[in-house]
């Protein structure tokens, strides 16, 4: 046997053993024998690096850091599912399916577990894993190939390829990456022993792990996958149930507990059965997924803007637990809002141990009559955020007293005040350490400036050591490099990595910078709308309240908050520091040829079939048009979907041109051809 053949045989053996161990849970050999085979392969490849192949088991864990996650276009839109919460809504889904398909069609459904994890898309070209990507916005995700390759239940090459019936030369496989509950507990136990911050739940830790820059760290995390969908432009696939069987033959891990149901009554029975076994499963599920089995029927049913018409999620009731409320503390956020927090006797609920829960505000406490030393019923909202549902009044102590709010800030002792028509209390001291830290954490977060390494612990330290007093100071940290290196547990490498990340973040687009400023009510979506509309911070600062509210979906509260932010001298001072640091305070307007959208203003109303209103708005902006909130004589077009209301009536009164969705699609086609 020559060296090529020996290497091929070793790789095939290890792939086979991996499949049986990680996919089928049926080990064929012991750990020692497996390790010896892997070491033999590693030794031969290290001596003959020219013979290493990308699909070799030794190539699962890369050594290079992923500096950025490149955008990846999905071959097929990666839509999210519409949710149902009771049996009647499932029956309504069945009725809609049959109305579209017609009386002559018989409909079967496949019901599968809804795994509570992170969605991923795997692209296989010529039988080998090419790219792996996150869902992203459904059209474009982020590439996470190096991290996904570390998951041994993800095949690097397809089994039984080439396939006798299907070509499968270029396929996309959808799946859910997750952690088993026990693996998650052990991971958190290890982190606790090392003094590291604990993960909130298996889903968040899985999603976060997939976005780590170091594949070697990812490889140490106990990630697994269930695949649930196979897509191909080359093959006429027939049924979802057959696709699941095909995925299994190709070497993928599928959840074999799926059920084929001949009626909606069988579907409901299966959903009920899944909910009954929920707590006995080794992994988290938060519902059942119901899919039309026939691919042909799926194609006929099609999709609306964000979700398919042929599938729906049946969400289970939120899990509950009872525990003791030991104390109510008050925390200060980045906006100065002072909110109550329930300190609880730790209790395990829906995949994680809960020791704290938000109480939102004083009105919430009084409405539910929540008191210290009460036994309370906890629930995870959306199976993520813990909240107190009710109090066990039968267990209440006779001498319990209602909760009273603090008069002073629990962090800096400044007097608290309450805005008119608001229930929240606020600390008015802008230099309050809690506010400063909150603003810094928001600014550095992944969804804002994405400063790798500047997390909560480091921010706390830098604020206490007076290196950071506001977000502008982040860009002066380079002037303190020698002092920072001397801090215990930091050192030269970690500080240089941090300073490099700070420099890199200056490339973030204007919309991200605007969101990072932390203007009240200006979330990531609002920031993008404002950035697209005004194109620069200077234009936004000059905008009047009327100009602000004329932007699509920008209301009076947001407009007032923006105006107040730019009236504050301290904010203007910080903005100037950020400008000097070189941050992007303007957007480069894409040059597009003049077309039917150029400089035209559009109002969107009603429900569109092929777009969300946000997606339609982005199309208009992309072709040089404007999207405004209210109809006036200056409005050029009103795009009216189903159930359009008063805006449509006003457009008719003012003689503004009204577009149907078909008209809009024709305009898009015309603009694309310009």
Describe the structure.
It is a single chain. By secondary structure, this protein is α+β, with helices and mostly antiparallel strands. It has 6 domains: 3-59, Helix Hairpins, CATH 1.10.287; 83-315, D-amino Acid Aminotransferase, Chain A, domain 1 (2-Layer Sandwich); 320-397 and 407-425, Beta Barrel (OB fold (Dihydrolipoamide Acetyltransferase, E2P)); 430-507, 5' to 3' exonuclease, C-terminal subdomain (DNA polymerase, domain 1); 510-581, DNA polymerase, domain 1, CATH 1.10.150.20; 601-673, BRCT domain (Rossmann fold). The chain is 37% helix and 19% strand. It contains 24 helices and 22 strands. The strands form 5 sheets. Strands 12, 13, 14, 15, 16, 17 and 18 form a 7-stranded antiparallel β-sheet that branches. The chain has a 5-stranded mixed β-sheet with strand order 2-11-10-3-9. Strand 21, helix 23 (646-654) and strand 22 (657-659) form a beta-alpha-beta unit. It is globular, with a radius of gyration of 28 Å. The mean pLDDT is 88.
Features:
single chain; 674 residues; alpha+beta; Helix Hairpins; D-amino Acid Aminotransferase, Chain A, domain 1; OB fold (Dihydrolipoamide Acetyltransferase, E2P); 6 domains; seven-stranded antiparallel β-sheet; five-stranded mixed β-sheet; 22 strands; 37% helix
Secondary-structure map with pairings?
Blueprint: H1 3-23, H2 31-47, E1 71-73, E2 83-84, H3 87-101, E3 109-115, E4 118-125, E5 128-134, E6 140-142, H4 145-148, E7 170-178, H5 181-193, H6 202-210, H7 215-219, E8 224-232, H8 240-249, E9 259-261, H9 264-277, E10 285-292, H10 295-301, E11 311-315, E12 320-332, E13 337-349, E14 352-358, H11 362-368, E15 375-381, E16 385-391, E17 416-418, E18 425-427, H12 433-444, H13 456-464, H14 481-485, H15 491-504, H16 510-516, H17 524-534, H18 537-542, H19 545-549, H20 556-567, H21 569-581, E19 601-605, H22 613-622, E20 626-627, E21 637-640, H23 646-654, E22 657-659, H24 661-673
Parallel strand pairs: 2-11, 19-20, 19-21, 21-22
Antiparallel strand pairs: 1-6, 3-9, 3-10, 4-5, 4-7, 7-8, 10-11, 12-13, 12-15, 13-14, 13-18, 15-16, 17-18
Helix pairs in contact: 1-2, 12-13, 16-17
């Amino acid at each position: 046997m020559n060296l090529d053949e020996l290497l091929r045989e070793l790789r095939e053996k290890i792939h086979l053993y991996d499949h049986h161990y990680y996919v089928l849970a049926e080990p064929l050999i012991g750990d020692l024998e497996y390790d010896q085979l892997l070491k033999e392969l590693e030794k031969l490849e290290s001596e003959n690096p020219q013979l290493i192949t990308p699909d070799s088991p030794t190539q699962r864990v890369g050594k290079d850091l992923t500096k950025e996650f490149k955008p990846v276009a999905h071959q097929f839109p990666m839509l999210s599912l519409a949710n149902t919460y009771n049996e009647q809504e499932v029956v309504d889904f069945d009725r809609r399916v049959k109305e579209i398909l017609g009386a002559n069609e018989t409909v079967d459904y496949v019901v599968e577990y809804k795994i509570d994890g992170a969605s991923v898309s795997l692209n296989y070209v010529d039988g080998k894993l090419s790219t792996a990507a996150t869902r992203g916005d459904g059209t474009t995700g982020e590439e996470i190939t190096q991290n996904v390759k570390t998951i041994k239940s993800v095949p690097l090459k397809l089994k039984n390829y080439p396939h006798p019936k299907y070509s499968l030369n270029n396929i996309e496989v959808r799946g859910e990456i997750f952690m088993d509950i026990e693996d998650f507990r052990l991971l958190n136990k290890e982190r606790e022993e090392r003094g590291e911050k604990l993960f909130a739940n298996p889903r968040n830790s899985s999603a976060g792990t997939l976005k780590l820059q170091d594949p070697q760290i990812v490889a140490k995390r106990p990630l697994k996958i269930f695949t649930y969908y196979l897509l191909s432009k080359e093959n006429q696939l027939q049924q979802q149930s057959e696709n699941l069987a095909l995925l299994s033959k190709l070497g993928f891990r599928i959840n074999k507990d799926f059920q084929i149901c001949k009626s909606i009554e069988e579907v409901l029975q299966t959903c009920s059965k899944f909910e009954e076994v929920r707590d006995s499963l080794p992994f988290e599920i938060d519902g059942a997924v119901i899919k039309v089995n026939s691919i042909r029927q799926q194609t006929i049913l099609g999709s609306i803007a964000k979700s398919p018409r042929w599938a729906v999620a049946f969400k289970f009731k939120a899990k509950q637990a009872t525990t003791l409320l030991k104390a109510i503390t008050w925390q200060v956020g980045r906006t100065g809002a002072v909110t109550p927090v329930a300190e609880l006797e730790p209790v395990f609920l829906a995949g994680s141990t809960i020791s704290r829960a938000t109480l939102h505000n004083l009105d919430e406490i009084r409405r539910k009559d929540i008191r210290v030393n009460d036994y309370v019923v906890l629930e995870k909202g959306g199976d993520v955020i813990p909240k107190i549902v009710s109090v066990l009044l039968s267990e209440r102590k006779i001498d319990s007293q209602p909760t009273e709010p603090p008069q002073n800030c629990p962090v800096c002792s400044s007097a608290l005040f309450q805005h008119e028509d608001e229930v929240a209390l606020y600390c008015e001291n802008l230099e309050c350490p809690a506010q400063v830290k909150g603003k810094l954490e928001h600014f550095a977060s992944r969804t804002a400036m994405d400063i790798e390494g500047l997390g909560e612990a480091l921010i706390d330290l830098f604020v206490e050591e007076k290196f950071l007093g506001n977000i502008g100071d982040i860009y002066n940290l380079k002037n303190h490099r020698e002092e920072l290196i001397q801090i215990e547990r930091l050192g030269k490498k970690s500080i240089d990595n941090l300073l490099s990340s700070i420099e890199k973040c200056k490339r973030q687009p204007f919309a991200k910078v605007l969101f990072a400023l932390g203007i009240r009510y200006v979330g990531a979506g609002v920031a993008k709308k404002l950035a697209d509309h005004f194109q620069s911070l200077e234009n936004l600062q000059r905008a009047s309240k009327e100009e602000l509210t004329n932007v699509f979906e920008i209301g009076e509260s947001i407009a007032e908050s923006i105006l107040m932010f730019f009236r504050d001298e301290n904010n203007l001072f910080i903005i100037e520091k950020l400008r000097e640091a070189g941050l992007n305070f303007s957007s480069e307007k894409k040059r597009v040829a003049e077309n039917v959208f150029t400089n035209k203003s559009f109002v969107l109303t009603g429900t569109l079939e092929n777009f969300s209103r946000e997606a339609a708005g982005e199309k208009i902006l992309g072709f040089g048009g404007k999207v405004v909130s209210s109809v006036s004589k200056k409005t050029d077009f009103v795009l009216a979907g189903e159930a359009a209301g008063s805006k449509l009536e006003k457009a008719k009164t003012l003689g503004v041109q009204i577009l149907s969705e078909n008209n809009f699609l024709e305009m898009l086609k015309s603009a694309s051809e310009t």
